[in-house]
């Protein structure tokens, strides 16, 4: 009886599709969108989030940061077992092998647990989750198209505030067709069915180097073709050089000043051509897999943003003011689809700030203090300004450096590559930038972020007691080195 009633309700709902009004609707359930939705709900708004992927968490959780970190972590473990067991006094009986199926399963488990976790958080905070696609009917109304198999009576949604958080997608390479099999974007690179013998990566940015690291550790011969004369897209030049050195030692090959002109699949082989801009020659390479990692671009597909005349700039980024308002003040925009670094944690900050702007009239994102981390081994992390930026701005600075080879914990861990580098104001010692290449750099950089946020000096850091033996002591000694002699080096 109950079932019958439910069925009737469902079928009548399908016929009498309805429009639903909320205080806030967030389009996109990635790190920017889902955090914003939860924050709005916590601030007392009737909030909905529309997401078309079928899973929350966006690119980051589903095909970006999270799966790539699972692969990075486990491939590093494999590499360590294979190459370092003996020196650590661990004898391995038999061969150490990669089971690619289970290796990928471990990644998928992490992804599924985390995406499911956000759905629970939505329930806990009372966020209505619409599983399907949103597109503008007009400035106030969104058409809602449920995903196949999703029972949803609502076919349009309206709200006082609309937040666009639709993210980004890989920038296509003119003339190269991604098939996610042999010619892959980051999405295909985290789901290869076998370990390729040879991989060519176009782009020595974060994605290219992280994914290049993973496959190189599993036995692939990886060549990175980078157009610029340095890798790491935006790293401090000294750190970039050190990174290239460490990755080269691990087996990655680099061709800098390489302008790729062609990448064509022929059966199971990809043929690549590039211009060596230093020599002025045309070179060719063959690979089993070509990874295209030349950046990402804002994603607005299917949103029908044209119908409302949404203002976007030449690079496709939604134009916003300092309170995230688009040219329609009740529509705001955050994350990769607008200005700034395309980083999950930057989007998360904006998700909180946009809710606070609407509720309280003020919000806060310090764009000068957004850390960047590359999860290679050693990790590379930085925050604040690089030496090159300080020189260009004519700011006088001091450098303090401390190598992990002189750090007791790094020594005991047999993990001593890299250094911590502080850039401090020449007169006041105020922290201007911190650049770390070394074990756990991605965790350690948080302390530098806090220092920057509070306007701390390197002396503040050097006079703060750091536990012994920790890697963080290298951080403290690098700070000390900007104005005094280090103790342990
Ligand atoms: P990217 O912008 O970091 O690097 C792209 C690289 O490709 C640049 O070095 C560029 O010079 C090079 N390039 C462009 N055209 C080329 C050509 N024709 N031939 C050779 N090289 C060429 O972009 P990437 O690595 O694709 O990452 C996209 C975004 O995702 C970035 O904003 C990145 O920060 C973010 N991301 C962050 C991660 C993290 O925080 N760990 C992980 C993955 C991505």
Automatic annotation (TrEMBL):
Cofactor(s) for this UniProt protein: FAD
S-S bridge residues: 60-65
GO molecular function, one term: flavin adenine dinucleotide binding
Record field: catalytic activity: N(6)-[(R)-dihydrolipoyl]-L-lysyl-[protein] + NAD(+) = N(6)-[(R)-lipoyl]-L-lysyl-[protein] + NADH + H(+)
UniProt cross-references to SUPFAM superfamilies, sorted A to Z: FAD/NAD(P)-binding domain, FAD/NAD-linked reductases, dimerisation (C-terminal) domain
Alphabetically ordered keywords of this record: Disulfide bond, FAD, Flavoprotein, NAD, Nucleotide-binding, Oxidoreductase, Redox-active center
EC number: 1.8.1.4
The UniProt record lists the keyword Disulfide bond: yes
InterPro entries: Class-I_Pyr_Nuc-Dis_Oxidored, FAD/NAD-bd_sf, FAD/NAD-binding_dom, FAD/NAD-linked_Rdtase_dimer_sf, Lipoamide_DH, Pyr_nuc-diS_OxRdtase, Pyr_nucl-diS_OxRdtase_dimer, Pyr_OxRdtase_I_AS
Residues reported in the UniProt entry to bind NAD(+): 203-210, 226, 295
Domain Pyridine nucleotide-disulphide oxidoreductase dimerisation as annotated: residue spans: 370-479
GO cellular component, one term: oxoglutarate dehydrogenase complex
GO biological process, one term: 2-oxoglutarate metabolic process
Residues of the FAD/NAD(P)-binding domain: 22-351
Cofactor note as given: Binds 1 FAD per subunit.
Residues the record lists as binding FAD: 69, 166-168, 336, 342-345
List of catalytic residues: 468 (proton acceptor)
NCBIfam families on file: lipoamide_DH
PANTHER family: DIHYDROLIPOYL DEHYDROGENASE, MITOCHONDRIAL, DISULFIDE OXIDOREDUCTASE
Note: The active site is a redox-active disulfide bond.
Family from the record: Belongs to the class-I pyridine nucleotide-disulfide oxidoreductase family.
Protein name in UniProt: Dihydrolipoyl dehydrogenase
Origin species: [Candida] arabinofermentans NRRL YB-2248
